[in-house]
Write a structure and sequence with these properties.
The structure holds two protein chains of two kinds. By secondary structure, chain A is an alpha/beta fold. Chain A is built from 15 helices and seven strands. In chain B, helix 4 crosses helix 5 and helix 14 crosses helix 19.
Chain lengths: 334, 538
């Protein structure tokens, strides 16, 4: 017993006992209450609240469409992006999405340094990394991605990460902004390719949404071709409303470049682009020959699905059927 | 949006303190304190944001010289070949802190000399109008007038400091109806034209005070630099209610009637004391508008100051030159010029305040007009707080009669032996016996003013005149007469006690001490300066 009393305490035990004593007497020394200090820190350690009755100072935030992204197109940022795409995004996408990529042969006619506009349907957050890992290197090296200003650029951190890792550039989707379209146009004219999802956001119900005319407008303005792309299966990975991805097989189909005609109207041109993506979807769902016949007979199914009530569209969506384990229909969540 | 990018700078603010109000910045000599003021009965006065400066100062100066105010002809019409021209300019005490190069005096003097050269004027003298202040060193003169001017006039001795104790260099011009003698620098008096180059930092500066005080000596100054005039000047920053101002004006009238011609050039600067985005930018912002950089800079500065010696701290603070912008230039006849200058000063400084308070708190900075490149001794601490800050009002004092002033400053028992030799004796001999301005004025003033050793140091070294510490104490006379208690927080206890004030370790202690005079729930007003603000109390 005497031996145990005389036992020398370990360093950890001394620290623990010291903490207990300090806690008991309520006299914790400075270095030991650092976390508590941080929690209760006051001005000037943290910003002060604007006092009641005082008009807050107008702050220029540089968020949203005004977020500056020039730095993300410089060589260091491009190098980081390239490394992140090759070393992180590509293995990750291979694991999660097991993509099957087709249609590269349709791009062979394009010149090596030809700037293009990639447009694709949009179901999931996985669409962007999947496309970034699928687009051939000759365009990926100088590629900007249109990202919703109100979603990706609502905070400095989000904006910085989006600009750095996907080369995002803010695009206004809730109002007409000449500023962002002019900026993108000037970049396209300088040889940058542009990737955008003309639906303006991820599909809320698994079906496509009408294409907006932005990509068509830029294609006409800069006289560059649009390359339609159809993505299948990404909705199962991380569709709207889901927070965690799950594995699923995907397909990426590149279509033939579409050049704007002389005096092309951006609205009709946009319809043409949407039709091209729909044909790729049809080709994917059936086969090329069937898709061709439907195309020429004007029977290609639209991306938005049949015209019926939204619940019936959701009900009839094949992916919903697949989800059901006992093949019994459930009321879908819309 | 940064202050300098705002189209309309915000006026001063009176903030009522509540529980959400952050700790408030108090200057504390060469350091700072963050103090929480009691909610519900405290308010903080913030100065106005810097007004925009003139876009082209040189063009504004030329315009002012050629389009003078009052009944004065343009400068070019006043300058004639063969005439005697004296250019007098404000000394090191203006502006505070010193201005970044080029100093406004340099710009104006160069413009005046250009015009003089074009008119064929050869006999030009430049005089630093320092009255009984210390002489300016060569580097200080170079900073004020610029190297071009200094190098052109120094070799012939045509640029020099005013010497109020030179028996050959001073002359009596006359006496006012009130019996005040008017004395002025002889060279200036004999000149065909005096061009006075002024910087109006506060509303007390300028006007006839420039020539009647700046180029004068003890014989004339004693008539208004005395306890009675100071007590009756309520305040000396408010011209309409300042006996000091009236006395200066009477002396100016005598100068004018004697035929001395003065072409007055006055300038105003804005409140850009610490810069819009430099390392001290946070000092001219309101606490809740400090951004991350401001807070980091402030904390870093505080940590650094803790580890620095008082000498290093003083050196680093005294090295700060303010990026003031010039807001106006007026030239011409003295009174007309000064009227417009005062309006421009008020535009920047005046803050409307309702009612008086029981306790006035103020954080005293590291600098006052008399310790540029020097030590802020206890007498100057008292002068800055009770002389300058207390008197920055129009209408009524910020604090009620019988109220308390609480100042924060380390108040070291430390004196600059070269600059302030008479202050040492004043502190040891006079203040140890009496703190009553009237008593010391009668008993000691003359002996200090006429002491040969102090005269010698004033004339040949860089010492303030022997009588200067008395004037600093008289500067406090109105406050001492008005207040029941003065408390200095964080000051040297012995030095504070020597001046008859109370010493407190913390602001809370000071409130406790003040409760003897103003009760346990007094109203408190904090004067958040610098930058400068002047309270218009209704």
């Amino acid at each position: 017993m005497c031996r145990s009393m005389a036992r020398k305490l370990t360093k950890r035990e001394i620290q623990r006992k010291t903490r207990e004593i300090y806690k008991a007497v309520g006299n914790t020394p400075q270095r030991m209450r650092s976390i508590a200090n941080i929690k209760s820190a006051q001005f000037p350690y943290r910003a002060a609240h604007t006092p009641n009755g005082v008009t807050p100072l107008e702050q220029k935030t540089y968020l949203g469409s005004e977020y500056p992204t020039v730095w993300a197109r410089r060589l260091p940022a491009r190098t980081v992006r390239l490394l992140a795409t090759e070393l992180i995004a590509k293995p990750l996408m291979s694991y999660i999405a097991s993509p099957k990529r087709t249609g590269y042969d349709r791009l062979e006619g394009l010149k090596r340094r030809q700037a293009v506009i990639f447009v694709a349907n949009h179901h999931s957050h996985a669409d962007t990394p999947l496309l970034l890992t699928s687009i051939p290197f000759q365009w990926r090296n100088r590629l900007i991605v249109g990202a919703a200003a109100d979603y990706f650029f609502k905070s400095k951190l989000g904006g910085s990460l989006s600009a750095l890792f996907i080369g995002a550039i803010p695009v206004e989707r809730n109002k007409v902004s000449r500023e962002s379209s002019d900026q993108i146009a000037s970049l396209i004219k300088r040889g940058w390719s542009f990737m955008v999802f003309p639906e303006g956001g991820r599909s809320p119900d698994g079906w496509g949404q009408p294409f907006r005319a932005g990509a068509a407008y830029l294609s006409i303005k800069c006289n560059v071709p649009v390359i339609p792309i159809h993505l299948t299966g990404t909705g199962n990975i991380l569709r709207k409303g889901k927070a965690w991805p799950k594995r699923s097989s995907t397909k990426v189909t590149f279509g033939a470049p579409i050049w704007p005609e002389e005096k092309e109207n951006s609205r009709t041109y946009s319809k043409k682009i949407e039709q091209a993506v729909a044909e790729l979807a049809d080709e994917e769902n059936n086969d090329w020959w069937v898709a061709q016949k439907r195309k020429h007979s004007g029977q290609t199914p639209t991306l938005q699905g049949p015209e019926m009530a939204s619940w019936r569209k959701a009900w009839s969506l094949e992916s919903n059927l697949e989800k059901s384990s006992n093949n019994k229909k459930h009321w879908p969540t819309i | 949006m940064p202050q300098n990018q705002r189209k309309h700078p915000r006026p001063g603010l009176v903030l009522d303190v509540d529980r959400t109000t952050p700790p408030i910045l108090f200057h504390h000599g060469e350091g700072f304190r963050m103090e929480k003021l009691p909610a519900g009965r405290s308010r903080v006065l913030y100065p106005a944001e810097p007004l925009p400066g003139v876009s082209n100062p040189n063009a504004s100066i030329r315009d002012a010289l050629e389009n003078p105010l009052g009944d004065s002809p343009p400068l070019s019409a006043l300058l004639k070949s063969g005439m005697k021209l004296t250019i007098a300019f404000d000394d090191i005490s203006l502006p505070l802190p010193p201005m970044r190069k080029p100093d406004i005096r340099q710009r104006i003097i160069e413009a005046v000399l250009d015009t003089a050269a074009a008119s064929g004027v050869d006999d030009v003298h430049l005089i630093a109008a320092l009255a009984l202040h210390r002489r300016m060193t060569e580097s200080e003169l170079r900073h004020a007038v610029g190297d071009r001017v200094y190098d052109a006039f120094a070799p012939t001795g045509a640029i020099y400091n005013h010497d109020a104790e030179d028996p050959e260099g001073m002359t009596i011009i006359g006496t006012t109806p009130h019996g005040e003698e008017v004395q002025i620098n002889k060279r200036a008096a004999e000149s065909d034209l005096i061009v006075y180059v002024n910087i109006n930092l506060v509303s007390m500066d300028g006007g006839w005070k420039s020539t009647a005080t700046g180029l004068s000596g003890y014989t004339a100054l004693r008539h208004h630099h005395n306890p009675q005039t100071m007590v009756e000047s309520k305040s000396f920053m408010d011209q309409e209610n300042s006996e000091l101002h009236k006395s200066n004006w009477r002396q100016g009238k005598v100068l004018k009637e004697s035929g001395i011609q003065v072409f007055q050039i006055e300038t105003t600067v804005n409140n850009n004391t610490f810069g819009y985005d430099g390392p001290l930018a946070m000092l001219q912002k309101r606490e809740w508008e400090w951004n991350f950089k401001d807070r980091i800079s402030f904390l870093g500065m505080q940590a650094g100051l803790k580890r620095m010696s008082s000498t290093s701290k003083r050196k680093s603070f005294q090295g700060w030159h303010s990026p003031y912008e010039i807001t106006s230039v007026q030239a011409g006849e003295v009174e007309a010029v000064h009227k417009m200058t005062t309006e421009n000063v008020y535009k920047q400084h005046l803050v409307q305040v309702e009612g008086q308070t029981d306790i006035l708190t103020m954080g005293l900075p590291y600098i006052c007009p008399y310790n540029v490149n020097s030590v802020m001794n206890p007498i100057l601490v008292a002068c800055l707080g009770l002389g300058y800050f207390f008197n920055m009002y129009k209408g009524k004092p910020l604090v009620r009669k019988g109220g308390v002033v609480i100042m924060t400053h380390p108040t070291p028992w430390e004196f600059h032996p070269v600059h302030h030799p008479s202050y040492i004796d004043f502190f040891e001999r006079v203040l140890s016996e009496t703190t009553d301005p009237a008593v010391m004025s009668q008993k000691y003033e003359k002996s200090f003013a006429e002491d040969d050793w102090y005269r010698h140091l004033y004339r040949t070294s860089y010492a303030y005149h022997g009588v200067h510490p008395f004037y600093m104490w008289y500067w406090c006379a109105h406050a001492l007469d008005h207040l029941s208690e003065v408390i200095i927080v964080g000051g040297n206890q012995e030095a504070v006690r020597r001046m008859g004030f109370r010493s407190a370790t913390t602001l809370q202690d000071a409130f406790e001490i003040a409760s003897d005079s103003v009760g346990f729930s007094p109203t408190i007003t904090h004067y958040h300066s610098p930058p400068i603000l002047m309270a218009d109390v209704s």
